[in-house]
Design goal:
- The chain is α/β, with parallel strands linked by helices.
- The protein contains 26 helices and 18 strands.
- The strands form four sheets. Strands 9-8-17-16-15-10-14-13-11 form a nine-stranded mixed β-sheet. The chain has a four-stranded antiparallel β-sheet with strand order 4-5-7-6, covered by helices on one side. Strands 1-2-3 form a three-stranded antiparallel β-sheet, with no helix packed on it.
- The longest helix has 38 residues.
Length: 815
């Protein structure tokens, strides 16, 4: 019988000494200093170049003897200017060297004003290109004046003429100029043709009278050959590859001058001062006329996005807090030496007891090895052939008795291995510090959306998971077994990896003491309702509104994803960063939102279904739009963790519980009742169960981190969630007309045209915040234009068309 004992290598201190490297960046003061230097240098260079063409001949001998202080030069910038001018003009590029003045000046101005220098790459490339072309061109035509083309232009010109001749050299230079004109100046045959065409139309338009200055009698509709009874509302529909505008689009514009600019897409023919860019066809009484469409909108937006990215680079959401510094690793405390102390005598003793106990029950062992972890040692055994695994598993209590252990856990078999595992608690467990897991290479180099360092496994490896892929996390365990410390470890991990612009927290703390330290980072990382004083929710009554507000935020985000034609938040934010989504259409960068509930059982007891329903909605739908839930509870009973909730929380963490029933409730298997406490936990994401020693982070450490973040520049307020107004709040149906919003009529027209009553529609069309859009919906309901609140569904619209809406407003005015 082979008996081998393998121990895990000791953890070195190198992991704990790794700190996040912060790239060196120029401060604003440095940029102003360097920018000012470049601007002044460009001015000095200009004076040096100009004086070279005036006094260059006199200064020629002095340039060769710069070391002689007795030499006198005429250059306005002295000997240094004479040398620079000689180097860049005479021995350089000739007259084309003046472009260097422009380059240095623009670079300096960009740095002083704080404008991104990415656009300068394009400017420098094309200016250096044209410097060379002009230098060779001057060298070609001005062979008798070498200072015009410089030595470089002259020599390049001779080199090209040796191989291509004069004609070939001239053609190459002309081709270079064509490249510059097309790609830099954006000049094309179409633009030239368009210029002359527009000029011709402008001259033609000068002879057309302005109907705005005409009197009412002179402005006759009969010239359009459209009967009055057919003039009604604007109607636009797509017909093949063209737009067909019905003649009914004329009367509302003429009859209601206040509505001239109501529709920015279709311009009323009656108000056109200059002829349209298409061939106008006067319709008869029973005809429609057709307009050729402009280029496809998506192609235009794609080209615009490409130009914006080329000029300004990708959108960076972190620029609002560009000087934000992530917390340093030295804020965390090292609670141990960083390594695991291996007690060889204890290992040998436990091994012998396991072998003897199994032998007493006629179970022989072919091989056994040990893997030492921070708090538990895993003994892997390979039984002799013919031994039933279930027989070994039934001896769990007997082995625990022989080892005098607090509780052992048998894994039969270990997934992916042909062995049986027996986890035995160490007599002297090693504490896993948060500093050791945060400083590990596995966490620092993790390419995850929301990386979380939970602790270390039995093999002493840092255990890192991605909250975005869980997508929600359920935590349970008896009092004092490490849930609150686990929540702090989760939040700390995100604070060390994500910028305030990238993630926001909604914290629910019924116990009022566990999460209060995070109040200091309210304006950096926390989210809340607009009417709340504290960002951390301690009142169970306010939790319901917050959860429903998150449901509204979820619906709004799905509307944005639908408009952007993407499937998840990552694709949406990538498209927004690439400047393919217009903020004027309601689009914005979407940070991840993490909802943390510290004691879920207390909420269920006080609120019941009012909490369970929005939690279930968020768990089912919110993963794609970046809202993730972390729910912790002391009592993992079936009336708290219902089947509806469990089905949407595949990722679960179980700290020590008191019974096998609780273990099965949280993990769907036993084992959590055999944990040793003090952060010992089991993690599953629907597949295997992994035993992890949770990293320990104490209150003073959390306080140091929050103070470090809170002392830095922050946003003006916490991230505001949309205001939620439930059915029970009621709406004053006797609302005074004078109290209506100034955009009430415009909002009514949008709702009637779309036949969809929702605040998110008004947000996008009118570019409003959710609160004002919600008030408009309330006023529309009070007026009877839209129906009552129907949960997540859009409200019904009681007015079917624009003529009925006009009649509605006319009736109100006549009252």
């Amino acid at each position: 019988m082979a008996k081998t004992t393998k121990t895990a290598p000791q953890n070195k201190k190198t992991d704990t000494k790794k700190e996040t490297k912060i790239p060196v960046q120029l401060t604003k003061q440095h940029k102003v200093v360097f920018g000012s230097l470049l601007v002044l240098f460009s001015i000095a260079l200009l004076f040096a170049f100009i004086s070279f063409f005036i006094y260059g001949q006199q200064d020629q001998s002095a340039v060769q003897q710069l070391g002689d202080r007795s030499e006198v030069v005429e250059n306005w910038l002295g000997k240094f200017g004479a040398y620079l001018a000689d180097l860049l003009i005479y021995r350089g590029f000739g007259l084309a060297a003046f472009i260097f003045v422009r380059l240095f000046f623009l670079t300096g101005i960009y740095m002083v004003l704080g404008i991104t220098v990415r656009k300068l790459k394009n400017i420098w490339f094309w200016d250096l290109f044209v410097i060379i072309i002009l230098s060779v061109l001057f060298g070609f035509f001005a062979t008798s004046a070498p200072e015009l083309g410089g030595v470089i232009g002259y020599e390049l010109n001779l080199f090209l003429q040796d191989y291509l001749g004069k004609t070939g050299t001239l053609l190459v230079l002309l081709f270079g100029l064509i490249i510059y004109i097309i790609f830099k100046m954006k000049l094309s045959p179409e633009s030239i043709q368009s210029f002359f065409s527009d000029t011709k139309k402008d001259l033609k338009a000068m002879s057309i009278p302005n109907p705005l200055n005409s009197n009412k009698e002179a402005y006759n509709l009969e010239e359009f050959a459209v009967p009055d009874e057919e003039l009604d509302t604007i109607h636009l529909k797509k017909k093949g590859s063209q737009f067909e505008i019905n003649k009914e689009a004329l009367k509302p514009t003429i009859g209601h001058p206040s509505n001239i600019n109501r529709d920015p897409v279709v311009k009323p023919i009656a108000m056109e001062i200059t002829p349209p860019p298409f061939n106008e066809v006067i319709p008869s009484a029973d005809e429609s006329f057709v307009i050729e469409t402009a280029p496809e909108e998506d192609i235009i937006e794609e080209n615009l996005a490409s130009r914006l990215v080329a000029d300004f680079g990708l959108f960076d959401p972190t620029l609002d807090l560009s000087n934000y510094k992530f917390p340093t690793i030295d804020l965390l405390k090292e609670y141990s030496t960083g390594g695991i102390t291996i007690n060889q005598e204890e290992l040998e003793e436990n091994k012998n007891r396991i072998v003897d106990t199994l032998r007493n029950y006629k179970i022989e062992i072919a091989q056994i090895k040990a893997t030492v972890g921070p708090s538990v040692t895993l003994y892997e055994i390979v039984p002799e052939a013919g031994i039933r695994i279930s027989k070994i598993k039934s001896l769990e209590d007997d082995i625990a008795l022989s080892l005098s252990a607090l509780g052992i856990r048998i894994i039969a078999p270990i997934p992916g291995k042909g062995t049986i595992g027996i986890e035995v608690p160490n007599k002297n467990p090693t504490m896993v510090s948060m500093k050791s897991v945060i400083g590990s290479a596995k966490f620092q180099e993790a390419e995850m959306e929301l990386p979380i360092a939970l602790g270390k496994t039995i093999s002493n490896e840092t255990f890192v998971v991605d909250l975005a892929k869980m997508p929600h996390l359920l935590m349970a365990g008896a009092t004092g077994q490490g849930k609150s410390v686990g929540l702090n470890a989760v939040l700390t991990s995100l604070l060390y990896k994500k910028h305030p612009a990238e993630v926001k927290f909604v914290l629910v703390d019924p116990k009022k003491v566990e999460l209060t330290l995070f109040n200091k980072i309210e304006r950096h990382y926390l989210a809340k309702l607009p009417d709340m004083d504290d960002a951390i929710i301690t009142d169970n009554a306010k939790v319901v509104n917050t959860l429903n507000s998150l449901c509204v935020e979820m619906d709004n985000r799905y509307s944005l994803l639908k408009d952007a034609m993407v499937r998840n938040i990552k694709e949406y934010n990538d498209k927004f960063k690439a400047r393919k989504l217009n903020p004027e259409n309601g689009h914005r960068f979407l940070p991840y939102i993490v909802l943390v509930v510290d004691e879920f059982a207390d909420l269920i007891m006080t609120a019941g279904k009012e909490v369970e329903v929005p939690i279930a909605r968020l768990a089912q739908l919110a993963r794609a739009i970046g809202i993730h839930l972390i729910i912790a509870t002391q009592r993992p009973s079936v009336n708290v963790i219902t089947g509806l909730i469990k089905a949407n929380f595949p990722a679960r963490i179980a700290f020590r519980v008191t019974s096998k029933i609780d273990s099965r409730t949280i993990l769907d298997t036993q084992g959590a009742d055999q944990l040793i406490g003090r952060g010992d936990m089991l993690y599953t994401n629907g597949n295997d169960v992994v035993r992890v020693q949770c990293a320990f982070i104490d209150t003073p450490e959390v306080e140091k981190i929050t103070e470090f973040i809170g002392s830095q520049k922050a946003y003006a307020t916490a991230y505001l969630l949309p205001e939620f107004v439930g059915e029970e709040s009621g709406i004053n149906l006797d609302m005074d007309i004078a109290d209506r919003d100034t955009l009430f009529r415009e909002a009514a027209e949008i709702i009637v045209n779309a036949q969809q009553g929702s605040a998110s529609l008004l947000q996008r069309k009118l570019k409003l915040g959710y609160n004002r859009a919600g008030r408009l919906i309330d006023q529309l309901e009070a007026a009877g234009i839209v129906g009552p609140f129907e949960g997540s569904k859009a409200r019904s619209v009681n007015i079917l068309d624009m003529s009925s809406l006009d009649q509605f407003f006319n009736n109100e005015q006549n009252k």
